[in-house]
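Supplementary Methods S3. Input chains for the assembly prediction are listed below.
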Amino acid sequence: MSLVGAVKRANAKGTPEESIALRVAVLVAVLAAAGAAVSQGVGGPTLRVAATLGIAFGFAYSHHARYQNGYVLKGFLAAGVLLAFGSFLSQTSGAGAQALNELQVPLAELFLWVQVLHSLDVPARRDLLFSLLSSLVLMAVAAVLSVSSALGPFLLVWAIATLASLVLAHRSELAERPSLDVPLPSAAASTRAAGRKSVRPVVAVVAMALALALAVFLVLPAAGPGRAVAFPSRLANRLPVPEQGGLANPSLGGDDPASRDGQTSSTGTGRASTGYFGFSESLDTGIRGRPDNTLVMRVRAARPDFWRGQTFDTWDGRTWKQSDQRIRSSSGDGAIELIRAAEDRPFASGRELIQTVHVEATGPNLLFAAHSAKKVYFPDRRVFEMSDGTIRTAVHLPDDSVYTVVSERMPAGEDDLRRAGEIGRRGDDAALVERYTTLPPNVPKRVRELADRLAAESPNRYDLVRSIERWMAENTAYTLDIPPLPAGADAVEQFLFEDQQGFCEQIATALVVMLRSQHIPARLAVGYAPGQRNPFTGMWEVRAKDAHAWAEVWFPSVGWQQFDPTASVPLAGDPYSGAAATGLLAYVKAMLPSVPDALRTSARPLVLAGAPLLVGAFFAVRELRRRRREARRAWADVALGRLERMGTKQGRSRRPWETPTGYARTLAVSVLADARVQRVAALVEADAFAPGPPDPDARAEADRLLTELEERVGV
Amino acid sequence: MIGGGRVPRPAAVTKPALAVVAVTGALFLIAKTTGAGWLIVLLAGIGAIGFLAVVLPAPAVWKVKIDVATPADATVGVPLRVRLDVRGTSQPLLVRVGLGGDWTSVSPPAIGSLSVVPERRGVYDAVAVDTRCGAPLGLVWWRARRVCALERPVEIGPSPADVLVPAPHGGGPQGQETRAAPHAGGDLVRGVRDYRPGDPSKTVHWSATAREGRLMVKEMEAAAAPPITVAVDLRAGGEVAEAAASTAAGLALGALAAGIPVVLLTCESTGPRAGEVSTALEVNRRLARAVPGVPAEPPRGSSRVIVVSGPEVRW
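Predicted structure tokens for the full assembly:
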């Protein structure tokens, strides 16, 4: 076949589709997909109106004009597509190095325009199925752009409409074939039956598909690249921080290091509910109060980690500070290669962790990322590195900002860490030891003695860390509600031996101080715990209350390793289950309203009492439905059924091909030997097939004869 | 025609299904390179739909039960009403009766009839019924063939060929030939009927024509014409044999219509058979039952024996 012939055949007009139900189902699917795309920021006001009203109008028009050739319309549509493509080209002509990322939204807009235009020309089932397929692509575009659960309702509606469309399209396809000639009881009953025949399979398929999709979802691997193609980065506005390289944290209000006069304050005046006191130039362990449940950022990463903001190396018994405030500026166009901390550079393992962070609430100008960051994708051309490898930006990070950080780390597990570090100074860089083992001279004796005792029982650094963690777990309690730190008291001693309760800052500080007392380099890191994984988006949802402090411990042949007895974060070398549904139960549980205790305690008796009721209700409903079915049967069916029962009892059931009169003739001359049978059959056939309304007298006569016959036969 | 099992086999993967597979593959790659979690949810949904589309039609094709009933007699090329009782599943499906039917949609359980145009002559005590099902999604189709026994065999006679019938007193192919005519060679007028194109003008019954206001012709009582004997030799097999049966049917029916007695010589599964046929039904049945083999010997004294072993007629 020639190319022209093939094109002609491909574009041949299909048989116009008559099923309005199918058309509506496809329309709902397309609208759901378009709505999903629009909800992700695709399109301006014009496109949004076109995507809702235009598509609906287009489908209505397509149905109305399904028998027309529509050559003029096709020309108009072709011109429209060209126009949309021209707009797309003009939008993307200035795309830079991050072209792929920048193309996403314009490409989605182009696709949405094509969808709108195509909706005007869907006369046949084939066209509707094409629309359905393109709605799948549109939904996929929305899925790529979405970072929240808000896509869920759109996806659910789309899935139901798609399944309904497929079922209805299949039925429409079958309806085009010649069908078995079946006598219909009545027009009304036929319409009801047809409706039921369409609705039931749709409901059944939707139920099965949803259950199966959940099962498939449980076994699918998580999305998440080892090496991503697109590295999103976006900055809602570029408001510079007051001091280049300095720390700014508007969420701390009056304690914002960029605005106050250098005096440490513990009042928290004007602090936002998301403000964490650790994202400052110092961390006062005497400060109480925790941020709330506000979502502050979403992190797309293949595995959980500590999202580190900064570290502290100088401890004075109450407050942590940073001794080295030197900054190094790194710049680049889109991708910014970092210099990295000197002690991190030797541990270039090649094992990368790519994290894309979507900022949801304005916070400090810190780029939170797993240790240790080596490359940043950030719209501002310049970032600042601290000597510990943490990153600050030159601009504020308002909500809706996006950045991507590529981190690299040694995949060290327990055995590696046990082999990696002895207790003592051996193998450590002198400058590093000097900086990260320094303690104030007044470290309480009880603290040192406890560390000495635990070190004596531990063969290596790793075991000492775990030993200290175990001791704290056995002898102290984690709580956010602790008494104020008395004036002049040592925070670690107060936590370990007096209050014996505290939260992450106290716990991590105690760990660091005790390790330093054994000449093991350690420091306090602050940032965010991984947060809760949203299994649908695959992102870690980090809330303000996830602001966290933990210890980083130096291992000579591995580098810095994070330890935290209060957060369950795997070691870098630990295997991590990468299933898509990881965290599903916890996420659903967190989304559900909490069950009152009273209800929880009374759940067992409720279940025990409810189960029999449910079983009883099941059988009652089944019986009710059976009776309804019986009631719906036409009189002729019931009468014929009575006749058949009599025949069957006498050993002669009705053959599938036998008409009622033929069957009755056989019964009349053989097993029943009663001429009344033929009269009944004649009345039944007349009732079923006569064009006029049923004759009540005839029915009454047939019923009477049937009753007489039944009495004779004993049915 | 009869054979095969009822084990379902994949019949067709539709173009929409192939398109979905292609898009799904692309989405998987995009999910792995962008980390978009919603794509995995979408893929799980597509996977579920795909699984249902592949799996659900198979049990429908496997479970469906079909009873077939046919009339006792049929003729090749003449539509025949076949009664079907389809049950065992609630999924809509397509059925095709192997006698020569087209695909017909059925929503089980259903009892109804469909039109079949028989394609082959013979006596069938069972028919093959093909079923195809793509329900409920119509993306992947399964098929199966089952053999349904008939309570009463159907005898399908050949389609009568349009052949010339020898004249009652003709002696062979060179003699006068005629189509089935009202003037059957007798002298007694049996009745009158409407004129039909081809009726000889000498048979016009003028009095009746004047009375009725339209052309009427005489139907003559058949004379005691000698029967023609048609020997049907199907040993050539295949299409040639079918053509022979068709020719024989045309000859026999034409002769009967012309009032000429016909003796058919055939070979049936029980052996050679010779016998007079007096109705179209008998002709149909005798030729339906005819199988390749040596036909019976003509009765003693047969003067006009026509041997039919193909489309041509031998005297």
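The longest helix of chain B spans residues 15-34. Chain B touches chain A through 57 residues (CB under 8 Å).
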